[in-house]
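pasting for the record
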Amino acid sequence: MLQFVLLLTHRYHPIQTWASEESLQKLRAQNTARGALWSNLHSSRNHEHRNSDQVLNNGLLQAIRQHRTADLSLPSSFDMDRLNEPDRPSLDDLLPLFIELTAARTCLNDEWQPTSDWFDLAGQFMLQSVIDQYVINGRCQTERFVAIFAFGSPGMEGDSQVAETVALQRLFCKDGSQSEELPEWTALRHRYIKEVSFLLQTPRQT
């Protein structure tokens, strides 16, 4: 919890980010591996990501960055290009930590389970992670897009590699079954993937 809060609240700090390049590389490698596994197991869904690698022109990128600066009340002196620094976390770096915190919560003795509001919050986190990539880089590479949304049923039960790689995804499956995803989550994830396409097609006012 402390790690997540520190990283999230210091993403735009001018000096201290509480992260190292090495730790972030480890997180990114895990995310990439999950995305690759998801892509292989769910190839029929890959059409959802075909428009995810759109590159924004410089004018639109600057407009988006200005909106982000204003929305977060950042000082005008803050340089958005600093978000590319190797020890500065992006939202998709923090997404697995958010999921992990919830997974730990379900292990407590009160038998708490994710609610509809939590599923919606997770979907919003994924959407904002994609938007964050556009703010930082002007694009969201397809493999990164897939990794961001790669939470759900990992495939057939009994596959030790799958179970080890995507153990946290049990949150999104029926009764802890790895082979049957909750329909509520499937529909919600699809909705937020479509929302990305809608946002990219909607002109922004500066």
